[in-house]
Amino acid sequence: MTEPYSINFDSKDNLFHVAGELTFATVNELLEQAPALFESHPKLNIDFTKVTRSDSAGLALLIDWMRLAKTNSKEIMFYNIPAQMLAIANASGVDELLPAQ
Q1: Apex 54 CA angle, 93 and 19, nearest 5
Q2: CB-based burial label for 67 (10 Å; 0-12, 13-18, 19+)
């Protein structure tokens, strides 16, 4: 059985690629992995093109990654945030806080 999500770093593009599901079932593990994954990168460029499903827990993950970046004086930028997540962000009033392109 394959993992319901993955996160990989592409050194050529200096980009983290997140794939699969960002839901209540998966985000806790990503929250635990993030500090070690992001530690050696001064700028966090994170692409969500291959995310297949997300919910409010996925949005909470992005907000936590923003907090982690700020705490560690790192730049962060999100690319291709899924429409589901943007809709939740908009309804919650946090869409304008997301560093997104």
Answers
A1: 125
A2: exposed
CATH of the domain at 41: 3.30.750.24
Taking the C-alpha atoms of residue 34 and residue 9, their distance in angstroms, rounded to an integer, is 12
For 21, residues 6+ apart whose C-beta sits below 8 A from its C-beta are 4, 5, 51, 52, 53, 54
**Residues constituting the chain:** 101
CA distance 43 to 41: 6
Residue 88 half-sphere exposure, CB side, CA atoms within 13 Å?
16
> Residue 3: is its pLDDT beyond 50?
yes
Is the pLDDT at 68 greater than 90? The verdict is yes
The arithmetic mean of pLDDT across residues 58-69, rounded, is 96
Q: Provide the domain limits for residue 64.
A: 5-97
Number of domains making up the chain: 1
pLDDT tens, residue by residue, 27-38: 999 999 999 999
